[in-house]
Amino acid sequence: MRTALRSLKPARLATTGLTALGAAGIATTALAGTAHAAQAPAKPATQPAAVAHAHDAKAKADTKAKAKDEKKDEKKAGGKEYADNLDGWIREARAIMNKHDIPGSYEGIKRNIIRESAGDPNAVNDWDINAKKGTPSKGLLQVIQPTFDRYHVEGTPDQLTDPVANIVAACNYAADRYGSMDNVDSAY
Questions:
Q1: Is 167 helix (H, G, I), strand (E, B) or coil?
Q2: CA angle 81-85-86, nearest 5°?
Q3: Could you tell me the CA-to-CA distances from 95 to 77, 102, 174 in Å, in that order?
């Protein structure tokens, strides 16, 4: 049996802090004086502090990377998660709009997005009068920068092509000009 113990590689047991070989050494010490006992207890293997620290740092980095990957597909607003797609952008925008009393139904917003950009948050109109004047309309609801700057809602990114910020600013503008995005049935 001593030969078998010597050929085993130590394995750490996280719950007790002992190694498998160390536990076997303790067991054989308890049998001292019998024919089956080992002559000396086996010493538990230890990891150098630098190796343990490197392992802990890698585990923390892996955890952070996993959390970051999970957040790519989901966004949080007001404690609720929204998918990173057209449906999620509209739902998140409506949650923000509700907090700021900006009217607009899911259907009215989506109808206008499909007409204006076909759901592409990076759509740019480079042919209309605004573009010819050097201010192309951009984003899901084809907003020009001066309109975005005027109707931007605090709490959303200050970026014209951010899907949620674009929707909220456009709906804020439509509410001011037409009463609601629901009342917009053509270019606005």
A1: helix
A2: 110
A3: 8, 10, 17
**Look-up: residue for tokens 């700021």?**
100
- Would you say 168 and 156 are in contact if contact means Cβ atoms under 8 Å apart? yes
Angle separating helix axes 106-117 and 163-178, nearest 10 degrees? 110
pLDDT at 46: 54
More confident residue, 151 or 186: 151
Q: How far is CA 11 from CA 17, 20, 29, 52, in A?
A: 10, 5, 19, 14
**Residue 160, C-beta contacts closer than 8 angstroms, at least 6 positions apart:** 138, 139, 143, 145, 148, 166
Mean pLDDT along residues 72-87: 74
Task: Kindly report the length of the chain.
Answer: 188
What Rg do the C-alpha atoms of the chain give, in angstroms?
Answer: 32
Place of tokens 């590689």: 9
Overall pTM surpassing 0.70 (yes/no)? no
**How high is the mean pLDDT of the chain?**
76
